[in-house]
From TrEMBL:
Protein name as it appears in the record: LPS export ABC transporter permease LptG
Family: Belongs to the LptF/LptG family.
Origin: domain of life: Bacteria
Keyword Cell membrane on entry: yes
Location (main, coarse): membrane
Family annotation (PANTHER family): LIPOPOLYSACCHARIDE EXPORT SYSTEM PERMEASE PROTEIN LPTG (PTHR33529:SF2), SLR0882 PROTEIN-RELATED (PTHR33529)
Transmembrane segments: 12-33, 63-83, 95-116, 272-294, 306-323, 335-353
Upper lineage: Bacteria, Pseudomonadati, Pseudomonadota, Gammaproteobacteria, Oceanospirillales
NCBIfam families the UniProt entry points to: LptG_lptG (TIGR04408)
Pfam families, alphabetized: LptF_LptG
Location in the cell: Cell membrane
Binding partners and assembly: Component of the lipopolysaccharide transport and assembly complex. The LptBFG transporter is composed of two ATP-binding proteins (LptB) and two transmembrane proteins (LptF and LptG).
């Protein structure tokens, strides 16, 4: 029986790998076609290719549930087309045992995907973001878009990009006049980079300061200046990243910080549960695929199985996005929104498998 389990598992695993490569290839091609218009003297074709390649590990982790579904349909469908599944069933092998054999490689791949999401994808995504940001900084201009806005010590701070070594890029500091409130600025300060020194002290580089007086405006430039801010380097770095690009540990740490500051952490909580429950989602979709192979797709062609898998995968992904975003909008725990489509798939798969078996 172990040999049969390995045979089924290998069939599903190879099908999964083929589907994952095809999905990544399509993503690469579509992204390249969409982003090629951004290529110029500062943002070269080589830079664009680097950005796309750096983002592939994160894409792979995201595609694992859908690739698991389609891979299982293809792997088991191939065995069904050659009547091998029929022979296994005639020999007394229950459907749950076939499902168990199919789930084993998917579980291993899902755990590998968790490792990629935790250790590989965030660092690669950070490098991709910095390459994109640098194309604007090489012109010496700040676009004030695509970065992050923060309120720190009564000042409003814009950060274009950051890395995990304690370096900020493209900083704009807007300080309101305390007597006039938010209606008038006291000064603005911009710097190309900022390096953390110690405690709450940062060193700003290539600094331009503009002071607003009732009768005049003064501007001065200095190579270096100190900046004292209460936010830690780690939190400044996390704030400058998109939630979907952070690892589980980073999402958890930043949630804690936001709650301590009495700020909304629902977006980061949503991304945390989407990533944390990805292996469960993969197994749920494998059950749906298993019930389909022994049910309505038993006599379907390979093209029909792939098409059905794409439709089911798209429906699942849209439901995940819908319920997840809805949970943030109506302020109920994101874990509930993420869990709803996964539980539906699990229950549907279990019920249908029991009926087939």
């Amino acid at each position: 029986m172990n040999r049969i389990d390995r045979y089924i598992g290998n069939s599903v695993l190879w099908s999964f790998l083929i589907v994952a490569v095809v999905l990544l290839g399509l993503d690469f091609a579509l992204t390249f076609i969409e982003q090629i218009k951004k290529v110029n003297d500062n943002y070269t074709l080589q830079s664009l290719l680097q950005v796309i390649l750096y983002r592939l590990p994160g894409k792979l982790a995201e595609y694992i549930p859908i690739a698991s579904l389609i891979g299982t349909l293809m792997g088991l469908g191939t065995l069904a087309a050659t009547s091998e599944l029929t022979v296994m069933r005639a020999a007394g092998m229950p459907i749950w045992r076939i499902g168990f054999a199919a789930c084993q490689p998917i579980l291993v791949v899902s755990l590998l995907g968790m490792g990629i999401s935790e250790f590989v994808a965030p660092k690669a995504e950070q490098k991709a973001n910095l390459i994109e940001k640098f194309k604007d900084q090489e012109t010496g201009a700040f676009s004030l878009s695509g970065g992050v806005w923060l309120k720190a010590d009564n000042n409003f701070v814009y950060i274009d990009a950051a890395d995990d070594t304690g370096t900020l890029y493209g900083i704009e500091i807007f300080a309101p006049n305390q007597q006039q409130g938010l209606q008038q600025l006291a000064f603005t300060k911009s710097a190309t980079t900022a390096k953390h020194l110690q405690g709450s002290t940062w060193q700003l580089n290539d600094v331009t300061e503009t002071f607003f007086f009732p009768d005049r405006i003064e501007t001065k430039s200095t190579p270096h200046a100190e900046w004292n801010v209460s936010i830690t380097p780690e939190n400044l770095f996390l704030a400058s990243q998109d939630p979907e690009t952070l690892s589980l540990s980073q999402l958890l740490n930043y949630q804690i910080y936001l709650r301590q500051e009495k700020l909304d952490a629902s977006q980061y909580e949503l991304e945390f549960w989407i990533t944390a429950l990805r292996p469960v989602a993969s197994l749920a979709l494998v059950l749906v695929a298993l019930s389909s192979v022994f049910g309505p797709l038993r006599s379907s062609t390979m093209g029909g199985r792939i098409f059905s898998g794409v439709l089911i995968g798209l429906a699942f992904q849209n439901a995940l996005n819908l319920f997840g975003r809805m949970s943030v909008a109506v302020s109920f725990p994101p874990i509930i929104g993420v869990s709803i489509p996964i539980i539906i798939c699990l229950l549907a798969g279990i019920i249908l498998v029991r009926r087939r078996g």
